[in-house]
Each structure stands twice: as C-alpha cells, then as structure tokens.
C-alpha cells in the first residue's frame, strides 16, 4: 500500500489506484481510469479489467499472460475524458518485459489510443480509438 503506484503517478498505491481496484471509489477522469487499468494489468487483476470494461465491448473472460511484466506507463496525449465529459481518449505508451517459454526475455512496447465513455457517472474502457 505504501509502495509507489505501478502507474507511476508519483503517489503511493494506497493513495492512487488501490481504492479503484478495491471497488471503494471510481476514477473521476478517463486518464485515472486508464492508469488504474494499467495498474490492474501490472498486478494481474483481471477482475478489475473486466469490471472497468464497457459492457458493449467487454470480453466474456480475460486471460492475462503471466510471462509479461509491465514496467512503465507514460501518458502521451488525451482529449476529453474530464470531470464534465462523457467521452474521452487517452494515448499511452506502456513498456513491458516478456519471458518466453524457453526462458529468454525480451522487452516490448504497447502504444495505444484508448477510448473511454462515462455512463451513470462511471468511466469505462470502450476500446482502441
Ligand atoms: Zn496509480
């Protein structure tokens, strides 16, 4: 809880994404939701990833690759997604390290522009823009 949050906001996990992952609060902006979903990937929390996925695009289940370790998140752009918006996009670069079945490792980058929507006061992930 007192460790640095995986989303690299600069806050501790307990003061950043943990209340969202625990379901005690909902992210107020699309970027905060995006950060909390990155943290869920970093912690292997498939339940939160599904819960924060818009019902119209949510998969029935989600298998997270245990060989992937998420290293860092950088927000590179955003539009909308604010306190008064109902739609928003967040562009990010996430870096990871994957360990293959033969034990070799390699690093990779995921770059995505994600689309978010807000229904009933709650932001959710819609898909790639
Ligand atoms: Zn965080």
TrEMBL record:
One Pfam family of this chain: SEC-C
Domain YchJ-like middle NTF2-like positions: 29-126
Protein family per UniProt: Belongs to the UPF0225 family.
Protein name as it appears in the record: UPF0225 protein GCM10009851_32710
Organism: Herbiconiux moechotypicola
Lineage: Bacteria, Bacillati, Actinomycetota, Actinomycetes, Micrococcales
């Amino acid at each position: 809880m007192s460790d640095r949050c995986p989303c690299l906001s600069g806050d501790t996990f307990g003061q950043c994404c943990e209340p969202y992952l625990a379901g005690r609060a909902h992210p107020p902006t699309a970027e905060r939701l995006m950060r909390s979903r990155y943290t869920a990937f970093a912690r292997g929390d498939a339940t939160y990833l599904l819960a924060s996925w818009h019902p119209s695009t949510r998969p029935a289940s989600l298998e997270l690759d245990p060989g992937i370790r998420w290293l860092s998140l950088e927000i590179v752009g955003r539009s909308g997604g604010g306190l008064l918006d109902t739609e928003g996009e967040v562009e990010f670069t996430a870096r990871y390290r994957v360990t293959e079945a033969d034990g070799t490792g390699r690093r990779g980058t995921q770059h995505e522009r994600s689309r978010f929507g807000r229904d009933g006061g709650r932001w959710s992930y819609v898909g790639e823009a």
